[in-house]
Amino acid sequence: MCATHPIVPNRYRGTTTYHKVFCRLIQAALARQPIHYEDVATIMNLQGRGQHMAKETGHILGEISEDEHNQDRPSPMLSAVVVQKTGKKKGIPGDGFFVLAVNLGKLGSNATDQGKRQFWENELQETYRQWA
Q: How far apart are the C-alpha atoms of 46 and 117, rounded to whole Å?
């Protein structure tokens, strides 16, 4: 992985919003409490729900996870603490989390739904351990 060629294009890196979301993820990890995408959207001053909110929250979380991965600190994906509030995937991250994990070489591209869930659960527990 080369920092000059990010997987997730630069949009929020270096902004106050990036740092606020990053700090909130750390607070969630320290508290051992997942947060919802809507919580991230609130920090980002995004209104409502839907595709735009999902795209933007996913983007900033991708930037943060990629940056942490590239800096080798700590090893799990910090965005593992962010989960869906409703729907059939309630309580787990959105699909973008798993796509990024594949792109970072942390998850096999042929992982089953059960394999993805196990990967996320391991990342979440390791995130809690690392930030404890």
A: 28
Residue 112 lies in a domain: yes
CA–CA distance, 59 with 63 (Å, rounded to integer): 6
Domain count, the chain: 1
Give the tens place of pLDDT for each residue, 79-125: 999 999 999 999 999 999 999 999 999 999 999 999 999 999 999 99
Q: Is residue 5 part of a domain?
A: no
Q: Which residues contact 38 (CB under 8 A, 6 or more apart)?
A: 49, 53, 85
Domain coverage including residue 92:
16-131
E strands in 15-114: 35-36, 82-83
Is the model's pTM score more than 0.90? yes
